[in-house]
Every structure is written in C-alpha cells, then in structure tokens.
Amino acid sequence: MFKTLKALAIAGAMALFAAPASANDIKELNVSYVTSPFNLQVIVTKRHELLEKEFAQDNIQINWHKITSGAKQAQAMAAGSLDFGMVMNSSSVLISNAMGNPIQFVAGVSRPSDTFALVSKDESIQSFADLKGKTVAGPKGTVLHQLLVAGLVSEGLTVDDVNFVSMGIPKAQTAMLAGQIDGALLAASSVITSEQQGAHIVATSRGLAVPKLGMTAPTKFVEAHPDIVERVVKVHRDAMAWIEANPEEAIALGAEEAGISIADAKRLAAWADFTTTFSEEDLESLSDDMAFLIANEMMREEIDIKSVFASTALAQSE
Fold first, then answer.
1. Which helix (H) or strand (E) holds 202?
2. Which CATH number fits domain 116-204: 3.40.50.10540, 3.40.190.10, 3.90.45.10, 3.40.50.300?
3. Where in this chain does the record put each SsuA/THI5-like domain (predicted)?
4. Among candidates 224, 179, 171, which has minimal Cα distance to 198?
5. Looking at domain 3-112+211-313, does it have CATH number 3.40.50.300?
6. Is 296 exposed, middle or buried (0-12, 13-18, 19+ CB in 10 A)?
7. How far apart are CA 230 and CA 228, in angstroms?
8. Which of 39, 121, 146, 158 shows the greatest Cβ crowding within 10 Å of its Cβ?
9. What are the pLDDT tens digits along the chain (318 aa)?
C-alpha cells in the first residue's frame, strides 16, 4: 500500500537535497495566518512564536499575513510575496498548478470531513433526495460544492435537479437562516451557529468528499531552500505534539483566537482529524478532486498528482 509513498519520498528527498541553500540566504519568511476552519497547529505556532524561536539564531524575521483564501495565497506565492501557505485546500493547490503556478504540499494539516456540511432550516429536508427542485447555495468549486454533487448522485439525482447558487459561506448562511434559500453549504463555526439558530445538519462530507488541508510552499522555494522547508515542517510537527500533550490548553487557545466557547471549540477540534502528513488514500482521493474540478470547468486538463507533494508531506512506511 505504501510503495507509491516510499518511491515518492525517495524521489522527493533527492530533489530537495540536490542543491541545498543555506538559511543565511534568507532574511525573512512570509507565512499566511489561516485559522479557519479550526487550524489549531497554526494558532499554536503563531501564539507560541514557534517559528520566531526556530529562526532567531539565523536572524530570520517571520512575517505573518492574514490571507485566508486559498486562491489569494496562491496568487501571493506567484508574486513572490508569500513563502508558506500555512493552510491551503487541495482544490486551490490543483487549480494553481494547472494554471502554471507550481505549488507543493510540504505537510498535512487536517482532513475535516465533519466540518463541512449541508445545513437547512426546513425540517422537511432530511436528505439529499429532499433537495429536488430546491435552492442550495455555497462556494462553487470547493469541497462543499463537491459534497453537494456527490450527495445528489448518491440519491440518483444530479446538480441539475436543484437550483445551485454560487455564494460565499457567510451570505449563504444568512440567506438560509432567513428562509430565502432551502439549504446552505457551510463549514466550521457557521455550522454550529446555524444550529443554534434553529437549523440542522442534513449531511456532512464524510463518505462523500474528502477535504484535505495542508501546508504549502512554491515549488521553486522547496527546491531552493530544502533546509528551511524541513525546519518549518519540524515546527509544525512540534505544534501538533504540543496539542496532543496539552489538549485542554490547546482548545482554550483556539477558542480564544476564534472567539467561540470552549464547548464549540471542543466540537470543532473533534471534527478536525488533525494530521501532519498525507497518506496513500489522500493521493488517490486527489484524483477524484481533479476529476470534479475538470467537470466543473475549474481546471482545463489533468496534472501529475505526485508533483504537488514534497517528500516532507508524505507518510513514511515502517
């Protein structure tokens, strides 16, 4: 099962260390600060100044940028103003590479299948079958859109059987709660706050689509500065280890940063399925993501899935 991963890891390692660059060549690192859906590792890394401590002796300055959109992080990398996308989704990475902006995953972050959901305030809507002829809103070309399409197919329907409106999560939530639409594709805290206002979860992405979030860097940066990449990934893993050793303190930190209750933070953490690497199954499901993006005209043609993973992002076999 892990033969592919082992081969990728070996090949990636050879590429990474073919022409290593010293940390002395770097004066600053520009990294994104992405807290949603509930990225505890990133919150801990920033709040505990782990990157700052790691690179202090090298006199490397860490610049945090609040860029939450995957597409905007990709644009910043293309412009040379962002070195690490601390959290990006697989769709954004695939689209970026297809558009000639090579980006690689350097570490895993989470597989939050229960975080993404179809939510409705209409009690008559209890399954995807109940959506026929109804209006559903959410962000197009995302795992939420993929969730809707897969859910409809599971009931013998297609997206043409509903009125799908492309809309951002905040607006979709507001429209659903106001009764202007029948269902909304939501994530994380918007799911919880919708429930608190009388809505219910119709379905999550579990079993229908696999959201994959990871840390990224421009491919040229990965190739030019493998030592820096290794150290940033090490910090990411250290943050994960701290979370596992101090779960209550980590939850409290995340709740404070997100402005939510401890109870809600615990729920989001339970949904997150945190990780630091990608598995063989993740690589396989990325092919499904690519097929979905091509079918919905978000990508024009296929790319090599293996090319979007640095060796540091891959789970190693024993």
1. strand 200-204
2. 3.40.190.10
3. 55-250
4. 179
5. no
6. middle
7. 5
8. 39
9. 444 444 454 445 444 444 444 566 899 999 999 998 999 999 999 999 999 999 999 999 999 999 878 889 999 999 999 999 999 999 999 999 999 999 999 999 999 999 999 999 999 999 999 999 999 999 887 889 999 999 999 999 999 999 999 998 999 999 999 999 999 999 999 999 999 999 999 999 999 999 999 999 999 999 999 999 999 999 999 999 999 999 999 999 999 998 899 999 999 999 999 999 999 999 999 999 999 899 888 899 999 999 999 999 998 743
N residues, the chain: 318
Spatial separation of the C-alpha atoms in residues 92 and 96, rounded to whole Å = 6
Ranges of CATH 3.40.190.10 domains, the chain: 3-112+211-313, 116-204
Strand partners, 54: none
Contact 71, 275 (CB under 8 A): no
